[in-house]
UniProtKB/TrEMBL annotation, chain A:
<dbReference type="InterPro" id="IPR010016">
    <property type="entry name" value="PxpB"/>
</dbReference>
<dbReference type="GO" id="GO:0017168">
    <property type="term" value="F:5-oxoprolinase (ATP-hydrolyzing) activity"/>
</dbReference>
<dbReference type="Pfam" id="PF02682">
    <property type="entry name" value="CT_C_D"/>
</dbReference>
<keyword id="KW-0378">Hydrolase</keyword>
<dbReference type="GO" id="GO:0005524">
    <property type="term" value="F:ATP binding"/>
</dbReference>
<keyword id="KW-0067">ATP-binding</keyword>
<protein>
    <submittedName>
        <fullName>5-oxoprolinase subunit PxpB</fullName>
        <ecNumber>3.5.2.9</ecNumber>
    </submittedName>
</protein>
<feature type="domain" description="Carboxyltransferase">
    <location>
        <begin position="8"/>
        <end position="209"/>
    </location>
</feature>
<dbReference type="InterPro" id="IPR029000">
    <property type="entry name" value="Cyclophilin-like_dom_sf"/>
</dbReference>
From TrEMBL, chain B:
<protein>
    <submittedName>
        <fullName>Biotin-dependent carboxyltransferase family protein</fullName>
    </submittedName>
</protein>
<dbReference type="GO" id="GO:0016787">
    <property type="term" value="F:hydrolase activity"/>
</dbReference>
<keyword id="KW-0067">ATP-binding</keyword>
<dbReference type="InterPro" id="IPR003778">
    <property type="entry name" value="CT_A_B"/>
</dbReference>
<keyword id="KW-0378">Hydrolase</keyword>
<keyword id="KW-0547">Nucleotide-binding</keyword>
<feature type="domain" description="Carboxyltransferase">
    <location>
        <begin position="25"/>
        <end position="305"/>
    </location>
</feature>
<dbReference type="InterPro" id="IPR052708">
    <property type="entry name" value="PxpC"/>
</dbReference>
<dbReference type="GO" id="GO:0005524">
    <property type="term" value="F:ATP binding"/>
</dbReference>
Length: 234, 314
């Protein structure tokens, strides 16, 4: 397994953060290890752990130094590692994201098509034909860092970012694709938009997916877009 | 109950509490009051026993019309406070009556002041917190700063058995030369001579300083030869000091969950209260501490907060 460390590397992030690195590259194996450990820690809930944040290749344990210390946490991590092989990781959910491609909602789709000598139809077929893994979530609430964009669609960012990208916009930046969950500035090439609300803070579960889940984009018509929008994502 | 009408909002006044925990894995930062001691003091002064929501004021305070009799307190940055035209002391609770106008003017020293009301500000709790996170448009008043014409509500009032005040030694010093203690890492190994420049130089706070982070200006912190200039995006905490390729450090604060810049060191959490009151033009030095020292400082900070609570228990 390329890049996966034999032994986790621990680093200090201030007086309340312990960074645990499991590898030094972006790869599914390393990311699975990160997420599995995050799950186990959440499950074991060792004393003094305030929050666990999994990312591509490392996770951060935020702890209360009045309750625990680095040595105790390190020992807890080691004993969890030993039991890791016996654990059944729940399979990732696949979340379908309906997308209206092109038009006003995907103003850069022609650019992406031209850049690869293909038609907008090809872009849609290839983009919606793949499955993408959520490696991590960050930047804005619910913004997924997705792996698995087919190489034919890799396209550089805008030279100058837009000051406003509307919530739901689906874009491409180099080898990544992603969805903007809230209105924000952004420099990704926009190829479509989902009518789903990806972040609903008032719901008991405010997010549609978590790190590790798979995302599949499903092409919809303008009619379907407006129907889903008017149903308010109930 | 309706408590105040906002006559003037001030440039950036937000509702904050002790923060929103448990959602950083979904891209929701902690948010919350930046100067924790001043925040805690404001709440304790008005008899709030829990982490109630207050106003965090930036540089210039709001003008508020009082809609119902209550008790309030203002702490943090040194701001002139008036009730109608009568000056009012900070760091002490005082009664206000329906029809009064509270004016909180420009900070003479420091940046962030805290305005607490008995019972706490009553806004909807979002994911376990009332803190405003403006980029995510959640918390506080529809996720935005105060605006003219807003009505602020307050929770049910408790009781204030005796009036209390904050002893002088708990108040901020507002030095313009600030020493921040920091633990090297997690990417201190990206630097060799740069580490010496970082811990041996003075940096100036720029005007790009907000709740997301403080950009500093000073001698360029060079990466060591062959070190990558960025990292695979990883988690970040309040106090993390990023070094972008231009070599000018950025101290991350309460509104960022992940980042792709190398972090040379991390400011220890007790010193973040001091940083919250640093303004553009102030000079910052970094002092290296190891984890053992840092935890000793942390324990003494926490017992200081406990002593403050003891003084203010009404």
């Amino acid at each position: 397994m390329a890049g996966l460390f034999e032994k986790a590397v621990l680093r200090l992030m201030g007086d309340r953060g312990l960074l645990v690195e499991y590898g030094d590259s972006i790869s599914p194996d390393i990311n699975v290890k990160v997420r599995t450990m995050a799950m186990v820690i959440a499950d074991e809930n060792p004393d003094g752990v305030v929050e666990v944040i999994p990312t591509y290749r490392s996770l951060l344990i935020v702890y209360d130094p009045l309750v625990t210390d680095i040595m105790t946490l390190e020992e807890a991590l080691q004993s969890m590692e030993i039991r890791l092989d016996q654990l059944e990781i729940p399979p990732p959910s696949t979340v379908e994201i309906p997308v209206l491609y092109g038009g006003d909602n995907g103003p850069d789709i022609e650019f992406v098509a031209d850049a690869h000598n293909m038609t907008a139809e090809d872009v849609i077929r290839i983009h919606s034909g793949a499955e993408y893994q959520v490696y991590m979530i960050g930047f804005t609430p619910g913004f997924p860092y997705l792996g698995g964009l087919p190489e034919e669609l890799h396209t550089p960012r805008l030279e100058s970012p837009r000051s406003l990208v509307l919530a739901g916009s689906v874009g491409i930046a180099n080898n990544q694709t992603g969805i903007y969950p809230v209105d924000s500035p952004g420099g990704w090439r926009l190829i479509g938009r989902t009518p789903l609300k990806l972040f609903n803070p008032l719901k008991e579960n405010p997010f549609l997916y978590r790190a590790g889940d798979m995302i599949k984009f499903v092409r919809i018509s303008e009619q379907e877009y407006h129907r889903i929008l008017s149903e308010g994502n109930a | 109950m309706d408590a105040f009408r906002v006559l003037e909002p001030g440039p950036f006044t937000t509702v904050q509490d002790s923060g929103r925990y448990g959602y950083q894995q979904f891209g929701i930062p902690v948010s919350g009051a930046l100067d924790k001691l001043a925040y805690l003091a404001a709440n304790m002064l008005v008899g709030n026993q829990r982490n109630e929501a207050v106003l965090e004021i930036t540089f210039i305070g709001p003008r508020l019309e009082v809609l119902s009799d209550t008790i309030v307190a203002i702490t943090g940055a040194d701001v002139p406070v008036f009730v109608n035209d009568r000056p009012q002391a900070m760091w002490a609770a005082f009664a206000v009556h329906r029809g009064d106008v509270i004016s909180i003017r420009s900070a003479r020293k420091g940046v962030r002041a805290y305005f607490a009301v008995m019972g706490g500000l009553d806004v909807q709790e979002i994911m376990g917190s009332r803190s405003t996170y403006t980029s995510g448009k959640i918390g506080g008043l529809e996720g935005r700063p105060l605006a003219k014409g807003d009505t602020l509500r307050r929770g049910p009032a408790g009781a204030l058995n005796r009036m209390v005040f904050v002893p002088e030694n708990f108040k901020p010093r507002f030095d313009t030369d600030i020493a921040l203690r920091a633990i090297p890492g997690p990417q201190d190994d990206f630097f060799d001579t740069g580490l010496g420049v970082f811990f041996g130089s003075e940096f100036t706070v720029t005007s790009k300083a907000d709740r997301m982070g403080y950009r500093l200006e000073g001698p360029k912190i060079e990466f060591k030869e062959n070190a990558p200039q960025s990292i695979i995006s990883e988690p970040s905490v309040s106090g993390a000091i990023q070094v972008p390729p231009d070599g000018q450090p950025i101290i991350v604060l309460a509104e960022q969950t992940v980042g792709g810049y190398a972090k040379i060191a991390t400011v220890i959490s007790p010193d973040l209260d001091v940083l919250a009151q640093a303004k553009p033009g102030d000079r910052v030095r970094f002092v290296p501490v190891d984890l053992t020292e840092a935890h000793t400082i942390y324990r003494s900070y926490r017992s200081r907060l406990d002593r403050l609570k003891e003084c203010l228990r009404s």
